[in-house]
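Q: Okay, next protein. This is endo-polygalacturonase from Malus domestica. I've checked the sequence twice, so it should be correct. Can you predict the 3D structure?
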Amino acid sequence: MQLCLHPKVKVKMFSQSHFLCVLLIILVSFSFSFSSDPENPLVVHDLHRHHRTRRLQSPSAMDVTVNVDSFGAKGDGSDDSQAFTEAWKKACSSKSDVELVVPRNRVYQLKPMDFSGPCKSQVTLKIYGTIEASAKQSDYKDSRHWILFSNLTNFRVEGGGTIDGNGRKWWQSSCKVDDSHAVTFLGCNTLEVDNLKFRDAQKMHLSFESCVNVKASNLIVTAPGDSPNTDGIHVSGTQNIGINNCLIRTGDDCISIVSGSKTVRAEDITCGPGHGISIGSLGAGNSQAEVSDVMVSRANLMDTTNGLRIKTWQGGSGYATNIRFKNVVMANVSNPIIIDQHYCDQDKPCLEQDSAVEISNVLYENVKGTSASKVAVKFDCSKDFRCQEILLKDVNLKPLADETAQASCENVSLNRIGTVSPTCS
């Protein structure tokens, strides 16, 4: 039976079919318009990440995970050095980005280790558990380092775990030459150390040497206040480093910045007990030292033997310049502000010498709190190389007792802005 349709009905059906075809073409074109790669429609814009593009990875292209347990690590307090060595070799040789995992709830004991590069891809070391130093002094021999990361690029260490230097035995017979630094990064470029705990180092807890582009953040560094030479974070010959949101309580400098360091930023630092935040020492053994472009901001210092300190040896040369200390609060701090160009850390008196590391362009701004020492501001500068362009702006340091805080200023070109107390007469 032939069905006869009214002409208007035919036109209406044709219009609907035409509309569906056009709609289908638009949808297909629209889906392909989201592709960043016309050859691969799976490359899509991620609108929740500021319109960056992200390729959906096949399983073979995803990050590789290497677990130290897979190489025989026990995590029971026995020696796991060999397993870590093999795991590092595997991770460092991976052609894909790789995560090297140290599992949680275990204690991995290590002898001195050298995790060296360059690696073939980006490596992230995730420390969830605890890494502990061997307590056998014979394991260290002539090693200056317990854990050394060297010659690495785009390297990251994180995970919330703990690195335990097991240093108590060394503190009892402290020797500045023989003790090993706990963790050292040497010659690394583009480095991040985040969300870790360091404790009880034999000597320095965390040292950055000859590195470029470093971010150290969310770190907790602790050792007893009487533990010798246990600097928290040490910066040497390193450029463009940011130290942020760190709690440091040790037996020596919370942060020490020495020669060759440039563009150093330390912000949101809690320090104490310890020896405060130091630039130096510089110029030991008649050496040349250069430090510049240092900013310390939003720091809280409590119960430290020094506050903001610049220390140089007589006989040295070079400079420390363009240094800023801003927004610092102190509580029960001895020597809150000190420049010491006659630093002498040895048993016998140091010889009087003419040369010195030149100190210039130093700002102390909005520094407030209480001083545990009668002299709250001390500038002990060289008569041959006076401290130049030293500026105190809005500084208010009060004594703990019912006394008047004092300032001592020798051989310094000093300016003041705002309320400054105490001040040199």
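A: Here is a summary of the prediction. The radius of gyration is 30 Å. The first strand starts at residue 43 and ends at 46.
Q: Noted. On to the next one.
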